Amino acid sequence: MSTAVDDDLWSAIGDPTRRRMLDLLLAEGGGTATSLSARLPVTRQAVAKHLGVLDRAGLVRASPIGRERRYRVDEAQLARAVAQLSSVGAAWDARLRRIKAIAEAIQRDQDRHDHRQ
Amino acid sequence: MSTAVDDDLWSAIGDPTRRRMLDLLLAEGGGTATSLSARLPVTRQAVAKHLGVLDRAGLVRASPIGRERRYRVDEAQLARAVAQLSSVGAAWDARLRRIKAIAEAIQRDQDRHDHRQ
DNA sequence: GCCCGTTCGCAACCAAAGGTTGCACATGTC
DNA sequence: GACATGTGCAACCTTTGGTTGCGAACGGGC
Question: What domains, with CATH codes, occur in chain B?
Answer without folding.
Answer: 7-85 (1.10.10.10)
